[in-house]
Amino acid sequence: MLRSLHLFLLLSALYCSLAENVELLRSKRGVRFYRVLCVDSETSAVRSYGDTWLRWKGQRVEYCHCALRGQERCHSVPVINCYMSQCYNGGTCKESVYTSDYICQCPQGFKGTQCEINSNEKCIVGKGEGYRGTLSVTRSGEECINWNSTSLRGKKFTARKNDASSLGLGNHNFCRNPDQDSSPWCYIYKGNQIIWELCSLPKCSGDRNRECMQGLGKSYRGTTAVTKTGSACLPWDSPAVRRKRNNAWKSNALDLGLSNHNFCRNPDGDSGPWCHTYKNMQLTWELCDIPKCSRAPSTITTLGPRAPTTNNQATCGQRLDNTLNRPILPHIRRQRK
């Protein structure tokens, strides 16, 4: 009887283990199948069967939907300017006449549904919380999983989070740092499991990319996101600040450092970087505590030119070149004026 019980427990454990592996394999195969449905080669966006979107085709805009076997069915549609822009970094917003879909015409170097991806960003400031570049490979060389992948359901950080936009998460597989880790990272496949791994990105150099400010801090591009009193900053693209003068939707937001993040900025020449925040249930703004950048002291010598040396016997420090002690002639004085 005892032997039968042990055999039953052993078989039960083996069954659970096999079931778990089958589920992992099924999930992984499903994701791979999902990834080959409709994939945007430019932004790495993945779309499942039935999804619709707009895309640029030269100077025309096309309305597309994802059909069976990853086939894209597209046709041209008329567009108008958006009533309220949905584009970051100075992008131009266009809206379909017949649907509520919109599309952004991004400035050079930017891409993504809302121009939120910066193709020219090759380094990180601080821990890289504000990194919006296109690196999609980890330190070990593994390819990142799309943040919108169905295999990440149940994970804490995905493109389906409510604040995904301000964290840089979207329908792409680029490295991000949504949880203030030591550097940007992403999810990867390791065997039959999904784990996370850090990405390798260099630190940006220059005062503009330091966690300090020069002057009033108009060029500050650091990642401080709390005010002097410790209140959390609101994202510059928050619906709460949509009608404020300074937000991520301004036409010159890129120059002002405003985008889909909540880092302190000084877009209006105030006494220092600031941000929108809530205070006693009221929407307001408050300055941030950004230190001044310190400059390395320049090397200043207090010694004059050394006196010419000679082998003649003389008192220490006595100038031996008598020509240097001659009076300055008047015509030389006139030349110096």
UniProtKB/TrEMBL annotation:
Under the heading InterPro entries, the entry gives:
EGF, Kringle, Kringle-like, Kringle_CS, Kringle_sf, Serine_protease_kringle
- Tell me the GO molecular function terms: endopeptidase activity; signaling receptor binding
- Signal sequence annotation: 1-19
- Key words, A-Z: Disulfide bond, EGF-like domain, Kringle, Signal
Which Pfam families does the record associate with it?
Answer: EGF, Kringle
Give each disulfide bond as a residue pair: 87-104, 106-115
Q: Specify the Kringle domain's residue ranges.
A: 122-204, 211-293
The reply on keyword Ribosomal protein is: no
Q: What positions does the domain EGF-like occupy?
A: 78-116
Query: What superkingdom does the record give?
Result: Eukaryota
Mention any one GO cellular component term assigned to this protein in its UniProt record: extracellular space
Any GO BP annotation: proteolysis
Q: What is this protein called?
A: Tissue-type plasminogen activator
Which organism is the protein's source?
A: Oryzias melastigma (Marine medaka)
